[in-house]
UniProtKB/TrEMBL annotation:
CoA carboxyltransferase N-terminal domain mapped to chain residues: 1-226
Entry-linked InterPro entries: AccD/PCCB, AcCoA_carboxyl_beta, ClpP/crotonase-like_dom_sf, COA_CT_C, COA_CT_N
Span of domain CoA carboxyltransferase C-terminal: 230-481
Source species: Mobilisporobacter senegalensis
Name assigned to this protein: Acetyl-CoA carboxylase carboxyltransferase component
Molecular function per GO: propionyl-CoA carboxylase activity; transferase activity
SUPFAM superfamilies associated with the record: ClpP/crotonase (SSF52096)
UniProt KW keywords: Transferase
Pfam families: Carboxyl_trans
Amino acid sequence: MSNTAQLSARERILSLLDDNSFVEIGALVTKRSTDFNLQQKEIPADGVITGYGVIDGNLVYVYSQDSSSLNGTIGEMHAKKITHIYDLALKVGAPVIGLVDCAGLRLQEATDALNAFGEIYLKQSLASGVLPQITGIFGHSGGGVSVSASLSDFTFMTKQANLFVSSPNALDGNYTAKLDTSKAEFQANAGVVDFVGEDDASVLAQIRTLITILPSNNEDDASYEECTDDLNRVVPSLGIDLKDTAVALREISDDRFFVEVKADYAKEMVTGFIRLNGMTVGAVANRTEILDSNFKATEKFDSLLTSAGCYKAARFVSICDAFNIPVLTFTNITGFKATVEEEKSIAIASAKLTYTFANATVPKVNVIVGKAYGSPYVTMNSKHIGADLVFAWEGTEIGMMDSKAAAEIIYGDEIKNSKEALAVINEKAALYQELQSSPEAAAKRGYVDSIISPDTTRKHLIYAYEMLFTKRDSRPSKKHGTI
């Protein structure tokens, strides 16, 4: 057992699955190579325990690497056990969960070990978008193992574990004491890890929760749980002055259920799962504040679209679309973040997010909860790129830009020659707001379907997704997009 682990490889599986449900496969499989005196070494189960079981009644396939068996290194037969699990999962349509504690390639098997990595990568690639793939990092995960983790849909990590492509000491100008790039905090801030837990038990509990949210495969019906919450419950705390949309999403969800994904990365963009009338819904929301448990702002952001926020949202929406999970957006955006660094990537990043929203065929609902200006508003799941329904809260703004700024541009000469420039600006800004920037103006043009009171958001969304439940959306025949 790894000195950073709290549970053995088998204990992790038994803690993850429902009691007495684990069935092991390939328990007697071991290495075939005899090079470098391997024939004299006992490697129980060739360093990985594989099998299947259930989580809250849901079938899952699982493998757990055993660091006490040659450090859990991946060799020929080790990989064959994992790929066999994938083959079975693809046949029956069930998620695959990998519990990782691995020192990497088995050096004694050299090219066979490289082939082993490739076989695992291939199975993960074939299963992508077909089966939910979840990886939990409990010990070491370096080099090619970290690539395997990133091929998963969701990655979990304990605070004691290590995840890296190149070790901290191998990075130019860096060393572990200066910055431990292998730790969970760094990887979560970089967006590599979706969830971080204090210890093994915490991560395993989070994985169990996620399994109950997700469908078993891409052809499964949406994931449901019986709703005990009032479908018509109003939420008086909602309003355009609520800047932490994570709080808003929690408030509208059944029994305030909310699982935030990549919570430590690109915090100005919230992604996570809620439930509405028992149905799992993937939510994406712009955020300008983070509130603590006392509803005090701990961090503030501009209402701007960033490259990191786009990448975060695009990946999440892509996963939702692959597994037929409806998508909800809360839009409050006024522009693109304007820095030299952002200029290097923001066009590509926003293009990816635009494409992902436009390409998604699941039910898509957008709620404008603040300001919705310019191209970033279009990108955020607007009616213009295919949202099925768009709601706007009372008092929101929708348009090209701030009404005052627009008035100054349109009536520049008139304002310049006016003795009462400020009064003219205000008059023209009010006119522009009424004609072009109000939710009523957008609704008259068909870009907003309904203007709603914020406290009624929950019931409007429940009715919307019930109506869209049987949505079918055909697209031009193609192999895949290129964005």
